Amino acid sequence: MPETDKMRRLRQLSRQRMRLIWEIASLDETSLSNEERLLVNIMRLHPEYYDLWERLDEVTEAELERDKTNPVLHVTIHQIIENQIATNHPPETAQTLERLLEKGLSRHEAIHEIGSVLARDIAEIMKSNRNFSEQKYIRRLRQLVKPRRQKRRRLF
Fold first, then answer.
1. How wide is the angle at C-alpha 90 spanned by C-alphas 86 and 96, nearest 5°?
2. All residues at 6 or more sequence positions from 75 whose CB lies less than 8 Å from its CB, including other chains
3. 124 SS3 class
4. Most CB atoms within 10 A, among 93, 95, 101, 135?
5. C-alpha to C-alpha distances, 126 to 21, 41, 76, 101, nearest whole angstrom
6. CB 76 within 8 A of CB 32
7. pTM of the prediction?
8. Which residues, listed in sequence order, are joined to residue 66 by a DSSP beta bridge?
9. What is the spatial distance between Cα 136 and Cα 142, in angstroms, rounded to a whole number?
């Protein structure tokens, strides 16, 4: 699907905004909104991308991608998951987080596991041009923490 000028401009403005938030945080974090502080905190959780944040609105697509990951999309999905947990909508996101923590994952790893479910849904939506299904998302979250049944060994 060819990118439109409008989509290209939107992406450019989003990256510019993210870079400006990063820059403002280095000067005076108190001037940021709660949402912007959350974004900065998430960006700080990803030091492998620090070199990008200060020049985010200047990098090419090729420079941006790291290990088949788009850092902007990565922290954006991370932020969406954090917002779902904070607002308890859907409640299954927070429940999934708790179950993943109980399994021994760090909070950061658990957020990434949940984010992978959302990223998969987003990819399918973009590919098939369909609407987001919260029920499907919830089903996938539940599958993420569903106990695996072990196959019974036959004795004879």
1. 80
2. 18, 39, 42, 43, 46, 49
3. helix
4. 93
5. 28, 28, 16, 31
6. no
7. 0.86
8. 69
9. 10
Q: Is 19 helix (H, G, I), strand (E, B) or coil?
A: helix
Phi/psi of residue 69, nearest 5 degrees: -125, 135
Whole-angstrom distance, CA of residue 69 vs CA of residue 92: 26
Tokens representing 126 are 């973009």
Pair of tokens at residue 67 = 């290990």
pLDDT tens-digit map of 7-64: 888 889 999 999 999 999 999 999 999 999 999 999 999 999 998 999 998 888 888 8
- Predicted confidence (pLDDT) per residue in 72-131, tens digit: 999 999 999 999 999 999 999 999 999 999 999 999 999 999 999 999 999 998 889 888
